[in-house]
Amino acid sequence: MPETIVSEPKSRTASRTLNVLVIDDNPADQELAIIYLGKAWPFNSEMAVETAGDGIEALEKMRATKFCLIMLDWRLPRGGSGHVLREMRHNGVLIPVVVMTGLERNQIPDNLEQDGAAYLNKDSLNASTLYCAIADALRNCRILHRPTHKSVSPIGPVLFHSHIPQTVTS
Q1: Strand, coil or helix: what is 39?
Q2: Closest listed residue to residue 168, CA positions, set 32, 36, 43
C-alpha cells in the first residue's frame, strides 16, 4: 500500500482534505511529482496523495477514492498512451488531469486540452510549471462541465467547483 502524504493547509480555514492521485511507474518520478505538488498546491485545503504504478491500479483507485486532481504519466504499463485518460472520460470522470511525460507536446497525438487535461514535460517539472499546469487542467476541465458532456461519474467525483481559482495568470 503506498504511503499517503498530507500537506500543510495554506490557511487555518481549511475544512477538508483533497485527494490527489499520482500515476507513474517510476518511483523516483512519483516522489519528485509529490514534492513539487506540495510546493505548488493552490488550494486552502490539506492534500492527501496516493500513488499508482500502472493504469489498471490507477483506475481501481479511482473507483475506490474520490480525487480532485490526477497527475498522469503518459507512458504507463497496463494503460499508457492515453488509455487511462480516455477510460476516465468515457466513464464520465471529469477530474482535472496533468499529463506528465518526457515526450514533447507534438509527440502526443491526443487532444489533451479538449479532454480536460494539461501537458507538462517532466524535464521542466518544478513548482512553478506544475502550478501553471494545474491551473491549465482546471481551466481545460471546465469545458467538460458543459451540458453536452456526461455529468455522472461512476468511478470518481466531478471537479469541486468551489476549488476553481477565479483568476489565473499564465
Answers
A1: helix
A2: 43
d(CA 108, CA 86): 13
**Grid cell locating 94:** 471529469
Contacts of 169 (CB under 8 A, 6+ apart): none
CATH code of the domain containing 141: 3.40.50.2300
Range of the domain at 23: 5-161
Q: Give the span between the Cα atoms of 130 and 88, in whole angstroms.
A: 21
What is the tens place of the pLDDT at every residue in 30-82? 999 999 999 988 888 889 999 999 999 999 999 999 999 999 999 899 887 78
Say which residues have a Cβ less than 8 Å from residue 136's Cβ, sequence separation at least 6: 98, 113, 118, 170
For the stretch 80-139, pLDDT in tens is: 778 899 898 888 888 999 999 988 888 886 688 888 899 999 999 999 999 999 999 999
166 located within any domain = no
What residue has cell string 499520482? 22
Q: Residues with Cβ < 8 Å from 41, sequence gap 6 or more?
A: 7, 10, 47
C-alpha cell at 115: 479532454
37 part of a folded domain:
yes
